[in-house]
Amino acid sequence: MGKFRIDLLRHGESQYSHTLRGHLDDELTAKGWQQMQSTIEQVTDQSWDIIVSSSLKRCACFAEELSKTAELPLLINHDLKEMYFGEWEGISTQQIYETSPELLANFWQKPSQYCPPRAETLNQFQKRILKGLQDLLTHMQKHNLQHALVVTHGGVIKLLACLAEQQPLDDLLKMSAELGKLYSFEFSEADGQLTFMLR
């Protein structure tokens, strides 16, 4: 398997941007759409062969529009959704801090060991994201594609940045992934092991 380049675009501001929205399916605001649009317009090397998107509206609506204007195939990948925050879905960290300060602090500092009530664990999240990427790379290899644009979420980008830089997963929430910004990675596979690095 050769090398693949994957650019990850984080969705822009959405209706519930001030909360942990996880799998909540909120829409982009006009500002959020603009954030993504201006990032795409600034990309000089738009040599994408395919656009891939999380199935949530804050990613998929923009991806659909872009695939039409750029005349590129679109693949919706359910595995590349944001982390599921269980009972914290749609709640602001301020509210959580008022009701469960200790659990919030634990989750923030050691997400590998603590997770919100009834939420996805970091380990489950990582498995799901890596499966989604594996499926994408298999698809790219099969169709001879080199370069993909993936419209996805902050948690996904932070997780990949942690893995690429070989940082402990507990640093996940400290990684940066700004709304509407693009992060480039290079992926390669050897002996069934997926390796990737930030470009």
From TrEMBL:
The active site is at residues 11, 82. SMART domains: PGAM (SM00855). It holds the Pfam family His_Phos_1. GO terms for cellular component: cytoplasm. Substrate binds at residue 58. It comes from the Bacteria. One of its GO terms (molecular function) is phosphatase activity. This is Alpha-ribazole-5'-phosphate phosphatase. It comes from Acinetobacter nosocomialis 28F. The lineage of its organism: Bacteria, Pseudomonadati, Pseudomonadota, Gammaproteobacteria, Moraxellales.
